[in-house]
Amino acid sequence: MPASDEALLATGIAKTYGATCALRDARLTLRRGRVHALLGENGAGKSTLVKILVGAVTPDAGRLDLDGAAAAFGSVTQAIHAGIVPIHQHLSLFPELSVHENLSAFALAGGSGLWAGWRLVDPSRARGWLAEVGLDVDLAAPLGTLSLGERQLVEVARALSLDCRVLVLDEPTAALNAGEADRLFAVVRRLCANGTAALFISHRFDEIEALADDVTVLRDGRTVIDAALIRRHSREELTHAMLGAGVEARPERLCARAEPVLVGRGFAGRRDASGGTDVTVHAGEIVGLAGLIGSGALTLAAWLAGAQAGAGELSVAGHGFIPGDRRRAAALGIAYVPADRHAEGLFARLSARRNVSVSALGHLARLGWLRASQEAERIDPLLRRLKLHPAQPEAEAATFSGGNQQKLLIARCLALPGLKAMVLLEPTRGVDVAARSVIHDAIREAAAAGLAVLVATSDLDELMVLAHRYLVVRDNRLAAELPQDAPRAALLSALSGSMAA
Amino acid sequence: MRIKRPPAVALVCLGLFLLCCLLVPRFATFGNIENVLRVAAILCIVACGQAIVIILGGIEFSFGASVALASVVTVTVLPTTGPIAGLAAGGACVIGIGAANGWLVGRMGLPPVIVTLGTLMMASGTAAWLVGGLPLDAPPSAAFSWPARGRVLGMPVSILAAMLACLALHLLLAHSRIGRLWYHVGANPLAARLAGIDVARITLLGYVVAGAFCAVGAIILTSRVASGQPALAPNLPFETIAACAIGGLPLSGGRGHVLQVVFGVLTVAMLNNAVVLINLPVAWQLVLLGLAVLASVGLQKDWAALKRLAGRTAR
């Protein structure tokens, strides 16, 4: 294909946040008149790359070319005025303002003086843009009175107020129903027919196959499939590219199944109210809960740990508890590692030891008073076992690397008095190889000691080395249960749903 | 949290003390120092309560109004109940307001700023309504004036009470289970919930204990002014917040040591005293206090944070 076809070319893009490397060497080629899908699991660097394209983040290294000329954006506004227009998953419109005022927002933001920009765009032009996206609404109507799908189209119409060269659609259908999504896709296709390039980010394969012409897949901050024709790749191939090649070490086979420990009945995801999902985890068993992002696997796991309210019945070792009653679940011996380490797990300002002992305070206190020596005696061996580095239990949790912070959360689980079950969400996301193997060993040891363990992760390699049994979640329900010796291909097709009825 | 080296505020406090000794006439006399400590005592007791709320990630604006309400209630019921029960009734009011704040913040999940502002106005209005807007004098009695004027082993009762309050706060923060959980809730309430902590209950108890500290301060202050005043200590919440901020407690919660509170309080008390001694208008107390808060919070930000901030605003 001739180079003049390229609307936007990004090469060698790298970006590091603190100790985590979000992008190492990413490449993206968007061609005029084509819709380009960007795929990648959580943490692959997709959102960082999008932020760099739309000017929200400055890359550490790499080069951006827009229509063959080098480009660098200091802000989102600069990128927009260069013709790269983002359509966000969280609508970036103003519900209290009229459609007309919303359509004028770019013109206003571009005004040079304090007052110079305070003019609405010509109504006939505004109507022209609305007509182009197939919307027939009153310009004076407050945006809040429109449906979500209509608002998304207003956002696209607003993109027309500029010389839009690249349209960036970041999960635009997340809040839309099927009809609204189809309407949006028709508009995108029409815009592309006029020479606009579109970048489309979605987790839904159906939509990607319906809309996109080309595809780029990111994994671990690198481009692993570069601007390929999408119809040349099957869903399994794409999923495989996203999740990575396998390590074939498998855990030891379980001889006999012990008694059930953690039992959940009647989980109902948001979209699927009818019929419930049942999950049972037995003593000594590691159940791998697999699901792509948005499949509901993490929600199901959180529900099992009592961290997520909802319908259904839960029990651990015969004692029932109410979904969402995390305190009772912990008291009954269910330890939990949430998916988002920083937001939900870590007490960044407190010491490493305190981060761990929080689950054991009931045992460390007598009549409400803590005994400091007991705390160190009980917690520090756990930290040594997990090879906390540096070995400074008094240091603030924020000063440790991601892998060592994750060790603290695992240690917190192990310190829970009366521990019977562990529910671990993405236990090694963003964790270095050494910490990962320490954490995996700790999980295996815990199961060998008779605990019921459920690991929910989008990392297929992790599942293959840990789980005794796989449960695959798709569309908020159990799609398949696979035995330990299931081949990788079977898992992949269950994950992507290509063989589902 | 164990403090291995003295908090930065200790040096500031010591520096200010030396400066005052050198430059402020009549500062370094026994009588004046005792006076500073007496003023600091009430501030210190209430600041201990404020520190708990700040460690929880909250803030208490209602302390001043609840102290005023306590004084009014005390003086109102005094003729029928006698001085001791009267003072206790005033203290109970303060604890009750703390409990209401804790319930609204912890159980209802309302923002602390709004909750304590609301109870501030309600307490203030109630106090004014009870006495018709005018201060009401208390009949003098020995028991009534003992908290403010009494001495135990030659030591003023108020200063002794402040020392006990600091000890109590230290035991709570460093050695009790509930105190430990305040740090967890303040550092990350969501993580605390997911770790199985009853965040609502811990928060409620924190505000109640904070109210109990403030109640002790209210009793001493009421005893000192010997009257019920609906506008008794309007700046008390701000002075206690300032003391905590100057001491280095981050208002985002999760951190704090009793020594930081003590040195913060002493700094505030010395500033106020110096303004009076060098014959500046009393209004300058607030101006200087505001400056001190801004300066100390600015200096406590480490350089990395300052640079990040500069980078962000530049972009």
From TrEMBL, chain A:
InterPro entries xref list: AAA+_ATPase (IPR003593), ABC_carbohydrate_import_ATPase (IPR050107), ABC_transporter-like_ATP-bd (IPR003439), ABC_transporter-like_CS (IPR017871), P-loop_NTPase (IPR027417)
Family (UniProt): Belongs to the ABC transporter superfamily.
SMART domains, sorted: AAA (SM00382)
CDD domains given in the database record: ABC_Carb_Monos_I
Keywords annotated in UniProt: ATP-binding, Nucleotide-binding, Repeat, Sugar transport, Transport
GO MF annotation list: ATP binding
PROSITE patterns on file: ABC_TRANSPORTER_1, ABC_TRANSPORTER_2
Superkingdom of the organism of origin: Bacteria
Annotated ranges, domain ABC transporter: 8-245, 256-500
Designated name of the protein: Sugar ABC transporter ATP-binding protein
UniProtKB/TrEMBL annotation, chain B:
Pfam families: BPD_transp_2
Membrane topology note: Multi-pass membrane protein
Keyword set, alphabetical order: Cell membrane, Membrane, Transmembrane, Transmembrane helix
Cellular localization per UniProt: Cell membrane
TM annotation in the entry: 38-56, 61-78, 84-106, 113-132, 152-173, 204-226, 282-299
PANTHER family associated with the record: ABC TRANSPORTER PERMEASE PROTEIN YPHD-RELATED-RELATED, RIBOSE IMPORT PERMEASE PROTEIN RBSC
Protein name: ABC transporter permease
Lineage: Bacteria, Pseudomonadati, Pseudomonadota, Alphaproteobacteria, Hyphomicrobiales
